[in-house]
Amino acid sequence: MNSTAQELKLSSRIRDDEHAEVATKIIEAFARKARVLGIRSISMTGLASSLRMSTKTLYKYFRTKDELVHELVVRWEARAHKPITAYDTNNLMDILRYRIRVWVQNDAQYSTAFWLDLKTGYPALYKVYIDSLHESMRAMRERLTPYLRDDVDVEFAWSCYFTLMTDAARPRTFEKVGMTREQCVFAAFDFWVAAALDMDKLASADWVD
């Protein structure tokens, strides 16, 4: 895939008009297939058939599969970088839990085949997504570090955090303990919070810009 600077701005190309609802349904159908089959295995003809529309109609909304992948990543970005003012709460922990859930759902629902196809076939979009995750983690570390216990080494605390969260998201871990991936990740997060954070400091913590 040839990527241009314009393509990497990650703004949706779907116009907010009477066609937007159908376009969204197409993207959602593509996502359902992609998370299981990967990207390469999906044909536009097969996608149109699953939507009970003609290929000609599908092409009116999306000319190529590249455009569908772009819109999928756009939606991930919108969820991962939801503006602080869009939350119903300014409670730091509630917002962090939302962001963790986004990470779990994005990563967990998609197969190895999908991630391999995205990485090899759409390296620029893959990099944007990975960079987005790293930025989200950096922001979380910046927000939470002031609330670490005084007797906890900062680097050790965050090393433990990433080890716990990464391992909790692996099937060999959550299946062994009889949890879903999301349950296991949140259990690991709660375990780390109880061990590393000063709950008195945290009680007054708000996530503010």
Q: What keyword list fits this structure?
A:
disordered N terminus; elongated; Arc Repressor Mutant, subunit A; 209 residues
Write the layout of secondary structure elements.
Elements lengths: L19 H18 L6 H7 L4 H7 L3 H16 L11 H17 L3 H10 L1 H22 L9 H15 L2 H4 L6 H16 L2 H5 L6
Helix pairs in contact: 2-3, 4-7, 5-7, 5-10, 6-7, 8-10
So what's the oligomer here? Answer: single chain
Portion in helices = 55-70%
Tally of DSSP β-strands: 0
Number of helices: 11
Portion of residues in beta strands equals: under 5%
Ends distance: 37 Å
* Helix/strand order: HHHHHHHHHHH
Radius of gyration: 20 Å
Count of folded domains: 2
Average pLDDT number: 83
Shape: elongated
Low-confidence stretches: 1-8
Task: Summarize, please.
This protein is mainly α.
Task: Give a verbal description of the structure.
It contains 11 helices and no strands. It folds into 2 domains: 13-69, Arc Repressor Mutant, subunit A; 81-203, no CATH class. Helix 5 runs antiparallel to helix 10 (181-196). The protein has helices spanning 20-37, 44-50, 55-61, 65-80, 92-108, 112-121, 123-144, 154-168, 171-174, 181-196, 199-203. The chain is elongated and about 65 Å long. With 209 residues, it is mainly α.
